[in-house]
């Protein structure tokens, strides 16, 4: 039986990785210990951590003047941790600019309001989060602590296919991006960002691990109220070992990084992801029963929301999908409809199986 899991997160992991983790569960490399039993300061786990950090730096071509931090709390916690670490660079109360493109942008905005002044420089709410606001419409502050975007909205299915240039309008405010649901799915020029962060449970590994990539000059400005375990300076100085890190999450992430390298790295993943997304969007665009409501130039390659024009058929569609082992296709409760998340580990065969079912369902009900 082949099951295709389209969950938005925690999401599908490469089968090779799961098999290797299973084989090493009771005894990692002859140590006699499971990774879950290891001290995070022991030589065995330190070797796992160092390899994971090195491989991620290679995969994303992270420049030497950036630190990679392995943290906890997910992207939702980083919505607080980011302002706690960055707004101290400016006179208080500092202002942060946000571009609102959907549900996760809104969560970031709500959380940041506890720690700083928030300027929503542009919002896609008026177009029901179907497109990124035009760059020339952004009303950026002149002295913002940083400019925040969610570069791929997991719920709404919007993705930036460019890097916004904000320096000219802000006097050099760093660009901060929540990349949770498309990190490692495409090439990215890390040097154009001050901070990149993301939860691991989509393209990296299991829930519980958060990746932060931060430029050196943005470290060391935490507000006094920032908890020590979330102070990027302390985390960086202690090589992500200031407190006990999510050790098993880091181990699985490291296996995923190795899998990516064996399969051609980020460049190969991007080509595969373009092919998968094109296949699914072409089917939806040619349908009279299904529709995607996102502007084509802003469509996510990772998270594809779609709707039945006759929503009375929703339950029948999901029941049929389950019978065919196409799982987790129900859309987020806040927007309804359906959603197919097609992360790196989703093979194109899974997308073909979904497209075949979409066509079959339309023949029966269209």
CATH class of the largest domain: Alpha Beta
In the predicted model, the low-confidence regions spanning at least 5 consecutive residues are none
Tell me, rounded to a whole number, the average pLDDT: 96
What overall form do the CA principal axes indicate? globular
The CATH homologous superfamily of the largest domain is named Type I PLP-dependent aspartate aminotransferase-like (Major domain)
What structural class do you assign from the helix and strand content? alpha/beta
What name is given to the CATH topology of the largest domain? Aspartate Aminotransferase, domain 2
Query: What is the element string, with H for helices and E for strands?
Result: EHHEHEHEEEEHEEEHHHEEHEEH
Task: Describe what this molecule looks like in 3D.
- This protein has about 375 residues and is α/β, with parallel strands linked by helices.
- It folds into 2 domains: about 240 residues, Aspartate Aminotransferase, domain 2, CATH 3.40.640; about 100 residues, Alpha-Beta Complex (Aspartate Aminotransferase, domain 1), CATH 3.90.1150.
- Helices cover about 35% and strands about 15% of the residues.
- It has 10 helices and 14 strands.
- The strands form 4 sheets. The protein has a 7-stranded mixed sheet, with helices on both faces. The chain has a 3-stranded antiparallel sheet with strand order 11-12-14, covered by helices on one side. The protein has a two-stranded parallel ribbon with strand order 1-13.
- β6 and β7 form a beta hairpin.
- α1 packs across α7 and α3 crosses α4.
- The longest helix has 21 residues.
- The radius of gyration is 21 Å and the shape is globular.
- The two termini are about 30 Å apart.
């Amino acid at each position: 039986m082949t099951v295709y899991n389209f969950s938005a997160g925690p999401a599908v992991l490469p089968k090779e990785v799961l098999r290797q983790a299973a084989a090493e569960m009771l005894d990692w490399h002859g140590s006699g210990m499971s990774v879950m039993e290891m001290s995070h300061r022991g030589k065995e786990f330190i070797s796992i951590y160092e390899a994971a950090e090195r491989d991620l730096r290679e995969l994303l071509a992270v420049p030497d003047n950036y630190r990679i931090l392995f943290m906890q709390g997910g992207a939702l916690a980083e919505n607080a941790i980011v302002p706690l670490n960055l707004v101290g660079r400016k006179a208080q109360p500092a202002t942060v600019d946000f571009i609102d493109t959907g549900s996760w942008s809104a969560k970031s905005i709500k959380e940041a309001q506890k720690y700083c002044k928030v300027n929503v420089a542009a919002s896609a709410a008026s177009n029901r989060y179907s497109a990124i606001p035009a760059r020339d419409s952004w009303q950026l502050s002149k002295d913002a602590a940083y400019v925040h975007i969610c570069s791929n909205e997991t719920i709404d299915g919007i993705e930036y296919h460019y890097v916004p240039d904000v320096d000219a309008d802000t006097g050099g405010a760093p660009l901060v991006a929540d990349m949770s649901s498309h990190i490692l799915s495409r090439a990215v020029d890390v040097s154009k960002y001050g901070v990149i962060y993301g939860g691991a449970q989509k393209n990296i590994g299991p829930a519980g691990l958060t990746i932060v990539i931060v430029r050196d000059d943005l470290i060391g400005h935490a507000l006094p109220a920032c908890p020590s375990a979330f102070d990027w300076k302390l985390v960086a100085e202690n090589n992500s070992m200031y407190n006990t890190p999510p050790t098993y999450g880091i181990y699985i992430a490291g296996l995923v990084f190795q899998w990516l390298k064996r399969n051609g790295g980020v460049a190969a993943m991007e080509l595969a992801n373009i092919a998968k997304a094109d296949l699914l969007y072409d089917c939806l665009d040619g349908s009279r029963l299904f529709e995607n409501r996102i502007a084509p130039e802003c469509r996510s390659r990772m998270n594809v929301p779609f709707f039945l024009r006759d929503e009375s058929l929703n339950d029948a569609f999901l029941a049929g999908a389950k019978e065919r082992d196409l799982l987790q296709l129900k859309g987020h409760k806040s927007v309804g409809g359906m959603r197919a998340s097609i992360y790196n580990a989703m093979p194109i065969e899974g997308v073909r199986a979904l497209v075949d079912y979409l066509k079959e369902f339309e023949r029966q009900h269209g």
